[in-house]
Automatic annotation (TrEMBL):
Organism taxonomic ancestry: Bacteria, Bacillati, Actinomycetota, Actinomycetes, Micromonosporales
Record-linked NCBIfam families: PRK05409.1
Official protein name in the record: DUF692 domain-containing protein
Signal peptide positions (record): none
Protein source organism: Paractinoplanes globisporus
PANTHER family hit by this protein: UPF0276 PROTEIN HI_1600
InterPro entries from the UniProt entry: MbnB/TglH/ChrH (IPR007801), Xyl_isomerase-like_sf (IPR036237)
Sequence intervals crossing the membrane: none
């Protein structure tokens, strides 16, 4: 995938399947891996996208790569099977944990930026990639807090994980903005320290401030500051694809088209809306 320019895409969700199907210039989409069965019928709308030649990448949310426990083989097997069903060139998952000691959090939770945590992620990524038929891209998450025992900067933490695993980077530019804003830092400093040549694709999403913290909601419009970061990223290293994430509270189709057009304009990519 890294050798092909896909432009701007969108996260496929059942609620907006008709909208996604109607995007004439769409070449790239993403689907939550856990929403696709390893066997049986694909969700309605996905086969038509595949028939059009749209690349669909499965995005996992339940592996818990950052957990102290080994990844569960059946979850890895499901991700691998979905990748094969979709003919995907890669899969993606988060640098986070979602369960511990058998307890499911139901959310993506941040892990300490410690060397012990790096070792745990590296071990789980190795267990995962050994079973995958395609490369894996890792996504750092938005975090409302940092652990008190952090030992590394975010850039050093991510770079060491990527170097030791050989994984690609799924860069969520909205997460970069959210984390920098909540920490009182400059998001450009992180962009300038990350191995941008390892970026497989980019998430772009909206958020909102609540009680003094910026939340990566995926239900609000992409703010101008995030679009500015898209432009800054593309000036440094143009990614193969950028993807709009919306998860609930979907606006009218005209507003979604405007968001996609704004991302394309910021990135200097062709519009997918026709």
């Amino acid at each position: 995938m890294a050798e092909t320019a896909y432009g701007v895409g969108i996260g496929w969700r059942p609620e907006i399947a008709g909208f996604v199907a109607g995007l004439p210039g769409l070449r790239f989409a993403e689907v939550v891996a856990e929403s696709v069965h390893a066997h049986g019928d694909l969700p309605e709308g996905l086969p038509a996208l595949l028939d059009r030649g749209v690349t669909v990448v499965p995005h996992g949310v339940r592996l818990s790569l950052g957990g102290a426990d080994p990844v569960e083989p059946q979850r890895v097997g499901h991700l691998a099977a979905v990748a094969e069903r979709l003919g995907a060139p890669l899969v993606s998952e988060h640098i986070a944990f979602v369960r511990a000691a058998g307890i499911e959090a139901g959310h993506l939770l941040p892990i300490p930026r410690s060397r012990e945590a790096v070792d745990a992620v590296v071990a789980n990524v190795a267990r995962t990639t050994a079973e995958l038929p395609v490369p894996l891209a890792l996504e750092p998450i938005a975090a409302l807090f940092d652990w008190p025992d952090d030992e590394m900067s975010e850039a050093d933490f991510l770079t060491e994980i990527l170097d030791r695993t050989g994984a690609l980077l799924l860069l969520d530019i909205a997460n970069v903005y959210a984390n920098a804003r909540n920490r009182g830092e400059d998001p450009l400093e992180l962009l300038d320290k990350l191995p941008l040549d390892r970026v497989a694709y980019v998430h772009v999403a909206g958020g909102a401030e609540h009680q003094g913290l910026y939340h990566d909601t995926h239900t609000d419009a992409v703010p101008p500051a995030v679009l500015d970061l898209v432009a800054e990223l593309c000036a440094r290293h143009r990614p193969p694809a950028l993807m709009l994430e919306r998860d609930g509270d979907y606006p009218p189709a005209a507003e979604l088209r405007s968001e996609l057009d704004a991302i394309a304009a910021a990135a200097g990519c062709p519009a997918v809306t026709g």
